[in-house]
Every structure is written in C-alpha cells, then in structure tokens.
Amino acid sequence: METVEQKVAREVLQQPEDIKIGDKTYKFYPPSTATLILASEAISQLPQVKLDEKKLAEDSLYAAKDCRKLGEIIAIFLLGAKHLTETVKAPQTKRKRLFWGLLPFRRTVEVEQVIDRKAELARQLLEDLTPRELNTLASQLLMRMQLADFFGLTTFLIEINLLRQTKVEETTAFGQ
What local confidence, expressed as pLDDT, does residue 72 receive? Predict the structure, then answer.
C-alpha cells in the first residue's frame, strides 16, 4: 500500500506509474497537453446517445457498435501523444534478375516502417478487457490526468478571448 507522501512525491516528480494490462506492463506518465487534446478529439467522436430507462439494454447494445473509440481513448491516455506511433527500421530483401533474367540477384535494404501502437493497444484493450475492467481502467486514468489544470488553462484563455476588444470605434472631432 502506498502512503500519501509517496503518492505526492510521485506526482511532483512526475514519475511514471506501471499499469498492467493482460501480460504487458505499460508506463503511465503524467499527460502532456497534446495528449489531452488528442483524447478530447477522440472523445468528441463518441456517439451522442440518450438512453431510455425502459429500453436500457437495447439502447446500450445498439450504441455499442459505435464505441470502438473507447479503446482508442484509453490507448491515448496510456501511451501519450509522443508514443502513439513508432518508426522501426526493418531489413527487406529485394530480388532482381540480371542479364535478361539469367542471374538472380538479392539485395537487403533497411526500410523504415511506422507501427501504429495506438491501434494495437486499442484492439488489445477491447478484446482482452471486460466492460467492467475497461471502465475501472478509464476511471483510474482520468483521475490521474490533471484535468483541473487543463480546464483552468482553457477557461483562462477563453476568458481572455471574450474580453478582447472586437469592435474598433473611430473618434471624430466635433463638426466633422
């Protein structure tokens, strides 16, 4: 069990926290602003559904087809904006035939491949976790996301934008 002092020290020092999903362990770092923006973007793509209390099961199952974004949202939280993709150099063998196809020639070159870590993790989350585990994981991550600070920053900037002068009035001298 972690003490309050240890939790505070981890938050202040921005140390990563280990989160185990299946047989893999992921390092969860405090979120960057880019991570929060990407997560907000993905959240805005979730379906806008109003569930009828009388038909809760039917409405939930009907809306489930549009909820693949849940895995993507949690993957963004876990990986962070910097680690959503990874560029890897992989050897690839190219074959050619020389002298009118008589001599085979092989050459190995390194090709850069972009691996979409977000899509891989999102698929794994949706396939391996139950809805309850997914809900618990999302709740835990949201509690650690420093949303109050992000909300304060955006609210402050919106207020500045509202206070900005929008109309310029010219003053003219009397009689002109």
Answer: 92
Residues near 28 by beta carbon (within 8 Å), at least 6 away in sequence: 16, 17, 18, 19, 77, 78, 141, 144
Other Cβ atoms closer than 10 A to 155: 10
| Residue ranges in the chain whose pLDDT is less than 50 | none
For residue 84, give the DSSP letter: S
- Asked if 19 and 78 count as a contact pair (C-beta separation under 8 A), the reply is yes
pTM over the 0.70 mark: no
Q: Can you tell me the distance from the alpha carbon of 147 to that of 153, in angstroms, rounded to the nearest whole number?
A: 10
What pLDDT score was predicted for residue 9? Answer: 64
Which secondary-structure segment (H or E) carries 108?
strand 103-116
Q: Please tell me the distance from the alpha carbon of residue 118 to that of residue 85, in angstroms, as a whole number.
A: 7
- Classified as helix, coil or strand, 55 is helix
At position 148, the amino acid (one-letter code) is A
pLDDT, tens digit, for every residue of 137-167?
Answer: 888 888 777 677 777 777 777 777 766 666 6
Strand, coil or helix: 69: helix
For residues 29 and 150, what is the distance between their CA atoms, to the nearest angstrom?
Answer: 16
Could you give the count of Cα atoms lying within 13 Å of 147 in the half-sphere of its Cβ?
Answer: 10
67: nearest Cα among 140, 134, 145: 134
